[in-house]
Amino acid sequence: MHEEDALVRQTRDASQREYVKVAGVESEAVAPMTRIVPPRASAGFEYVFPAIRGIQAGREFYVSMCPLRLIPKIFIFDEDELPPELRAQRLLNKGRLPALTKYILDNPDDYVFSALTASVDGSMDFDSHSPDGTGFRTGQLRIPMDSRFLINDGQHRRAAIELALKENPDLGEETIAVVFFHDAGLARSQQMFADLNRHAVRPARSIGVLYDHRDISAQVVRVMAGRSTVFKGYVEMEKSNLSPRSRMMFTLSALYYGTQALLQGLEIKPGEATDLAQSYWEAIDKTLPEWAMVRNRTLSATEMRRDFIHSHGIALHALGRIGNSLLRESTAPSKWKKQLTPLKKVDWTRSNTDWEGRAIVGGRVSKSHQNVTLTVNYLRNHLGLGLSPEERRVEDAYLRGDA
Predict the structure, then answer these.
(1) In the structure, what pLDDT confidence band is assigned to residue 90 with cuts at 50, 70 and 90?
(2) pTM of the entire structure?
(3) Is the CA virtual torsion 379, 383, 387, 388 positive or negative?
(4) What percent of the chain has pLDDT over 70?
(5) Sheet architecture: strand order including 59-67
């Protein structure tokens, strides 16, 4: 065997072959070797990806499947220390990583990740399977190992994959789609980032709850919305905001956050959670006559939302937190239902000046964390319940005029 053929390495899995070769020679055999000193460490070595070739805006790009174990090794981030105008992507938000990593680890048989998009600062040679037909678009993409791979879209997925692999190395044999573009310089990479994110729209929270089959609270509110006389036919299942003329009383997302707060920390089975949550909201319904008036069509949903705040997200969230305090003491209906009776005396009208600065800021209902807490405090005072240290701090700041 010639000396230039001496160093060959091949690894193989069910979905992809990787080759490393020297001096342009590729083989599946490993031969005895003599010492070779290449001009530089990565000279002559290359990655070979099975790929599909495509065309966008007159430029070739390639789509391949890459084992997860290789993602942290070959894909890098732009330099964090560079100023924004010299980077091609935003800084990594490390606060997002725990949730993404947990998502992978908690759902090893059911997670879904979309493709990564990367620019390659180096040559890309595509060997098609045939000179024409469908084979012209399929083949092997060869990229020198000293090329620089820069992620244009998916840096948080890449970082989460790296963290997940440390806890579950078996994930390394699974694959993720990667779209390769040729790096045409900083301006082009920055434009790619802008274009990829320009039209990205996060779906409304309500439809996210509707389609989420993992979250217990989402399961509970979906069932309640379909079977409870309080909610059936009056919950907007897709949008997270109600139009002025909507006949709906609540959004699914508002009911979700209220129910999530209600069940927080309670160790009960999903079926029991649904029954308990439904029982609680039906008890709340008895303290709010306007809800029944809408169902009886003596008051329109539009008028109720205009004149009262008790169907708004902040009120449902606050009522959920109140209920959580009561249920932590006892889940027996005979105990917590009686404690809700004073809610009948609460003035929920927007004209009630007590809501200004608490639930209403500048004439608009506010859903900020601080305003939710101030609304909870107001209801706790009506029910004769004490405030937690954090609630007391927020209340004192409000009374001093600092809030």
Answers:
(1) low
(2) 0.72
(3) negative
(4) 84
(5) 125-128, 138-144, 46-56, 59-67, 175-182, 116-121, 148-153
User: Tokens standing for 225?
Assistant: 């919305």
CA distance 286 to 342: 11
CA distances in angstroms from 381 to 359, 375, 387, 400, listed in the order given: 15, 10, 8, 18
- Note the Cα 282 to chain centre separation in Å: 31
Contact 340, 380 (CB under 8 A): no
For the chain, helix, strand, coil in percent to 5 are 45, 20, 35
CB 6 within 8 A of CB 166: no
Q: Report the C-alpha gap between 27 and 19 in whole angstroms.
A: 8
Cα end-to-end span (Å), the chain: 80
148: which DSSP letter?
A: E
What is the pLDDT, as a whole number, of residue 41?
A: 47
Q: What does the pLDDT look like over 255-267, one tens digit per residue?
A: 999 999 999 999 8
Query: How many angstroms separate the CA atoms of 62 and 124, rounded?
Result: 10
Residue 392 CA to residue 374 CA, distance in Å, equals: 9
- Alpha carbon distance 348, 176 (integer Å): 52
d(CA 178, CA 382): 57
Q: Tell me the average pLDDT across 6-13.
A: 32
What's the maximum distance between 2 C-alpha atoms anywhere in the chain?
94
| The pLDDT value given to residue 205 | 87
Q: What is the DSSP string of 329-351?
A: H---HHHHHHHTGGGGG---BTT
Task: Catalogue the long-range contacts made by 79-84 (C-beta closer than 8 Å, 24 or more residues apart).
Answer: none
Contacts of 299 (CB under 8 A, 6+ apart): 290, 293
DSSP string, 283-316: HHHTT-HHHHHHHTTSS-HHHHHHHB-TTSHHHH
- With contact defined as beta carbons under 8 Å apart, do 180 and 61 qualify? yes
User: Token pair 């009886």 is at which residue?
Assistant: 296
- b/e string for 80-98 if b means 16 or more Cβ within 10 A? eeeeeeebbbeeeeeeebe
- State pLDDT tens for residues 142-169: 999 888 888 888 889 999 999 999 999 9
Reported as a single tens digit per residue, the pLDDT across 37-48 is 344 445 568 899
Given a contact cutoff of 8 angstroms between Cβ atoms, the answer to whether 156 and 120 are in contact is: no
